[in-house]
UniProtKB/TrEMBL annotation:
Name the UniProt record assigns to this protein: ABC-ATPase domain-containing protein
UniProt cross-references to PANTHER family, sorted A to Z: ATPASE
Originating species: Symplocastrum torsivum CPER-KK1
ATPase of the ABC class C-terminal domain boundaries: 170-450
Matching InterPro entries: ABC_ATPase_C, ABC_ATPase_put, ABC_N, MRB1590-like_C, P-loop_NTPase
One Pfam short name: MRB1590_C
Domain ATPase of the ABC class N-terminal: 5-163
MRB1590-like C-terminal domain mapped to chain residues: 468-567
Renumbered residue ranges of the record's region Disordered: 433-461
Length: 567
């Protein structure tokens, strides 16, 4: 290991040489109170920036142990440090000349508090991982600028962003305690017979469809209806009240633009924690909740969709249904069955993104088209069986069909973003106005059949490269020669989750996809390995751009791989 001044002299000596000579700086350098580690050096100014780490001993960083003494607090503090580094680096660094020259950046984060490989903390040290765009003039090394960046700018960022004495101690404690309270609340749901909780005073509307920050102007604070109000005494903030959604079948109804989908969106993202002042920081949902929608055009690999679809033309079987171009109804059926295969305990459905013919078949249509001519068994006839046979609850946004009143346990009406409990009124309407439709679902839901992925169908290679992975925004993974479209998987919230999912598929292929293990078994083994050893087990060297995902999103990615074959 050499020191800061050795690095400075080396960079000055490289000034003006060809860009590839930057490879000489890979290694570790001792600064006055931290270590700088350059893990990977980019090949040219336009390539992915170089990957760098800093490690501070706790004697320098100075974070009190109570801020990270539990897993919940540790993840929260790591999240805080990531955000602190991000904003400080933005203020201090600036692009210089071509490509990514001059960039000092850490992975961009959103409103969620997630486990990431950007920052780590222990009793011994604090480590932060980030990227540096090594500066160039054209394709020549700008050594003096590089020396300023690596030897001076990074030192300043470290001093301001990841030393406890430089930070707002009150803000850090609030951040950590907020996340701890959310985790605690989520753990209480099962015991209270709930699948979700929305606190009084929550701000659910967002700035826009592409901006997850809270709507501050004209936002209506959430207030729970009396019959659904529950209270908890959190470890840090004490007594909190709000709306508890019980297990079973819940409808969210109301007029257009009154907040139905906004409430469901908050619930679907309640599987994650959120930063203070997000407005949804204490909205919590059962961890095994999966958002379901129709997804025209997706591929399906031998999924048993027979609980929903049977008697296809030409006597095609639906017990091992495959297609490269699914319809709205077949895709929604497959999405549900794949989620059940992965172990979901709560389905979230919004009629706006569902296939109409999959959700309901009313009496008039039943009279016109006999059941033996209609392959689809609508969801309305299966949703109760899902709960009675498998204990799987469902929350539905439903503004267009009162037929669902017959199967609902709870009905919540939204008006001007405020909920009211209209369960008894909905039941009375259902009793007074019979739909006279004939149930089509049979006596039981049907089987949930685990599948065995075949190793040869999961191939991350391209050309001479054994593994070729690339992520595009939060929508798509390039996996070998294939593109996995995840735009309809709405519970992926950060690009880093996609990167980690892509690496996890490769990891699963190497270790557990053997032609004998079922997909649920493979998912469980991968997640256990990550839980025990961290996300670093997925990559060959430490990377700062991976974010923890749930096994449901990993399953979604594998299921959408168009080469997938199963037994």
């Amino acid at each position: 290991m050499t020191n800061r001044e050795n690095l400075r002299q080396l960079l000055l000596q490289l000034d003006g040489r060809g860009y590839k000579a930057y490879k000489d700086i890979k290694g570790s350098y001792q600064f006055p109170d931290f270590t700088l580690i350059i893990d990977r050096v980019q090949g040219d100014p336009f390539a992915t920036p170089s990957q760098v780490r800093v490690q501070l001993p706790q004697s320098v960083a100075g974070f009190p142990p109570q801020l990270y003494q539990t897993p919940s607090r540790e993840v929260a503090l790591r999240d805080y440090l990531t955000r602190s580094f991000y904003h400080t680096a933005q203020d201090i660094s600036g692009r210089r000349d071509t490509g990514n020259s001059g960039l000092i950046a850490i992975a961009h984060v959103g409103q969620s508090v997630l486990e990431r490989t950007t920052a780590f903390i222990s009793d011994e040290l604090v480590e932060v991982r980030f990227v540096v765009g090594l500066p160039a003039r054209g394709r020549s090394i700008a050594g003096r600028q590089a020396a300023q960046m690596l030897c001076d700018d990074i030192l300043q960022i470290v001093d301001q962003a990841i030393k406890y004495r430089s930070l707002d101690a009150t803000a850090i404690l609030h951040h950590v305690e907020t996340v701890e309270d959310a985790d605690w609340l989520r753990q209480q749901l099962d015991e209270r017979g709930l699948v979700a909780f929305i606190p009084d005073g929550a701000i659910l509307p967002r700035c826009s469809g592409v901006d997850e920050q809270p709507l501050l102007n004209d936002a209506v604070a959430f207030q729970s209806p009396e019959r659904l109000r529950v209270d908890f005494t959190c470890p840090n903030r004490g007594l909190i009240t709000g709306m508890g959604i019980p297990a079973g079948i819940t409808l969210i109804v109301g007029g257009g633009y009154h907040g139905k989908s906004t409430l469901l969106r908050a619930i679907e993202l309640g599987v994650y924690n959120h930063i203070p002042n997000d407005g949804r920081e204490l909205v919590v949902t059962q961890l095994a909740a999966v958002k379901i929608r129709a997804e025209d055009g997706r591929s399906i690999a031998s999924v048993d969709i027979s609980p929903f679809i049977n008697q296809l033309p030409q006597n095609r079987s639906t017990r091992e249904f495959s297609t490269t171009n699914a319809s709205g109804s077949t895709s929604q059926a497959a999405n549900i069955m794949e989620a059940l295969e992965a172990g979901t305990q709560l389905l979230l459905v919004d009629e706006d993104t569902a296939a109409t013919n999959f959700m309901i078949r009313d009496r008039r249509m039943q009279q016109l088209i006999a059941k033996d001519k209609e392959p689809i068994t609508p969801f309305i006839d299966k949703v109760r069986q899902l709960y009675t046979d498998y204990g799987v609850s469902t929350i539905l946004v439903m503004g267009g069909s009162g037929d669902y009143f017959d199967v609902a346990d709870t009905v919540i009406a939204m008006e001007n973003f405020q909920p009211s409990d209209v369960t008894e009124k909905a039941k009375a309407i259902a009793k007074a106005n019979s739909t006279e439709r004939t149930p089509e679902g049979g006596e039981q839901f049907g089987q949930i059949t685990p599948r065995v992925p075949l190793p040869e169908s999961i191939d991350p290679s391209r050309g001479q490269r054994d593994v070729k992975l690339k992520v595009r925004d939060v929508d798509e993974v390039v996996f070998g020669t294939q593109e996995i479209d995840l735009s309809a998987v709405e519970q992926i919230v950060e690009t880093g989750q996609l990167r980690a999912i892509a690496e996890a598929i490769v990891y699963a292929k190497r270790h557990y996809v053997n032609g004998h293990s079922t997909l649920p078994e493979i998912l469980d083994r991968v997640m256990v390995d990550i839980e025990r050893q961290g996300l670093d087990i997925l990559t060959h060297f430490p990377q700062g751009d991976l974010v923890l995902f749930r096994h449901f999103e990993l399953a979604a990615a594998i299921n959408r791989l168009r080469t997938l074959k199963v037994r």
